[in-house]
Structure formats: structure tokens, C-alpha cells
Amino acid sequence: GENVGLHLPTLSVQEGDNSIINCAYSNSASDYFIWYKQESGKGPQFIIDIRSNMDKRQGQRVTVLLNKTVKHLSLQIAATQPGDSAVYFCAEKRGGNKLTFGTGTQLKVEL
Amino acid sequence: KAGVTQTPRYLIKTRGQQVTLSCSPISGHRSVSWYQQTPGQGLQFLFEYFSETQRNKGNFPGRFSGRQFSNSRSEMNVSTLELGDSALYLCASSLARQAGSGRGATDTQYFGPGTRLTVL
Fold it and tell me: How many CB atoms lie within 10 A of CB A39?
């Protein structure tokens, strides 16, 4: 069945370093991918998205890369800050508004 | 512009009871989706409402239901609560185009803070 999964449950990085969070998906029919950030006690917060007809998209300090050949999605955070500590989810959409979420990666920023 | 609001934020119920959760979308947003978040199952889609009609539905039993009002506000109801229904229930709203225009559309969903439901 469809699956959106993450390679690592926890990622620890030093403040100022770049972070890379990975996500694998199995349904090649997905046409839209999104990254969300969830801090403790809050709902998921939209970070960045990418359509399936793109392979890269940049935002402020964040870049999403999509490799459709290997069905892989990644989120790169430049100059990681303590405020970036959170759980990061990738999600996919295949038409309509139903999002299928990955399991999440806990990002810990060490000072 | 105010974000998505959900009430109540916390709720404690006992098995067998029913519960109603409320969601007010961002002003102008017409679609409201509901998700359940648990440590074991993660974030799972419950259903989506658009123009007072259920447009998509996830794989949850019929005890889970919802509705949407003409002002786009939405409620979800869980009847005959079970211990396993303890979760964070999240509501997300989006502008939403007409049904069927979803393919290729990037209709961003914005989430509320959630309602933490504990079933004892």
C-alpha cells in the first residue's frame, strides 16, 4: 500500500550546521509533497512544498529536493538554529485534500 | 489574519461517552480536514469537508463523523468512545478550489493547535 516513511527517527546537529531530513515515498502517483514542522504542544506548521514536476524548491533557509527516480524527498535547513528543534513531517497528496504523512523525524539542535 | 482555532484544547472523557470537537478555519478558507495524531499511528486523515459536504474520507469507523456549517466552521463527533481514541485531533483549513481541481494544485493546508482528547 501507500507509504511515506522517514529514514531516521532522530537527528542531532550542532547550531549553525546544515540539517538534512530525508523521506521516502512509495506512490509514484503523488503530485504534491509538503514539509511540516511540529513543535511540542502545537499543530503542524507549513514549511515548504514542491510539485511533482519540480526537483528543487528554495525558501528562506530551507530547500526541498525531490528525486522521483528513487522516490526520495529531503528537507535541507541551512544554519540550523535552536528554534528549528521540532519534529519534521513529510506529507504527500494525490489530488483532493487528503494528506498522507510520514512518521516524523525529531530534530535536536545542540548548542 | 487569525489562524485555525480549535475548541476545546483539552478534553477528558470516559469510555462509552461521546464527544464533539469544533474547528474554525482561517477566514475565507472553504475546506476543513480533520486528522488524528497518536504516538503509534502518527498523523492519519479522518475526513475533509467542503461546502458543507464530506469530500474525502479516511479509514476510520463510523463512530467518527463530522459536519460543516455554511460559515465553513466544522465539528467532528466521536461516539461510544474507546481508550484507543485518546489522541490529538487536528483540524486543517485550506482555500480549496472546486472539487476535481486538486490534481496538481498546491492548496496548502494550515493546521490548528489541536484538541487533546483523553479517554479514561
Answer: 13
Instruction: Classify the C-alpha dihedral A20-A21-A25-A30 as positive or negative.
Output: negative
Question: How do residues A78-100 score in pLDDT, each as one tens digit?
Answer: 999 999 999 999 999 877 789 99
Tell me whether A1 touches chain B (CB under 8 Å).
no
pLDDT digits (tens, 9 = 90+) for A3-52: 454 445 899 999 999 999 999 987 888 889 999 999 998 999 999 999 99
Rounded Cα distance between B5 and B24, Å, is 5
Contacts of B81 by beta carbon, 8 Å cutoff, 6+ apart: B13, B14, B15, B16, B17, B18, B19, B119
- Burial letters B62-99, b for 16+ CB under 10 A, else e: eebbbbbeeebbbbbebeebeeebebbbbbbbbebeee
Cα–Cα dist B16/B71, whole Å: 31
Task: State the pLDDT at residue A13.
Answer: 96
**Among partner residues B48, B103, B109, which is closest to A31 by beta-carbon distance?**
B103
The minimal CB distance from B106 to the residues A41, A42, A51 is found for A51
- Test B113 with A41 for CB contact under 8 angstroms: yes
Contact A31 B96 (CB under 8 A): no
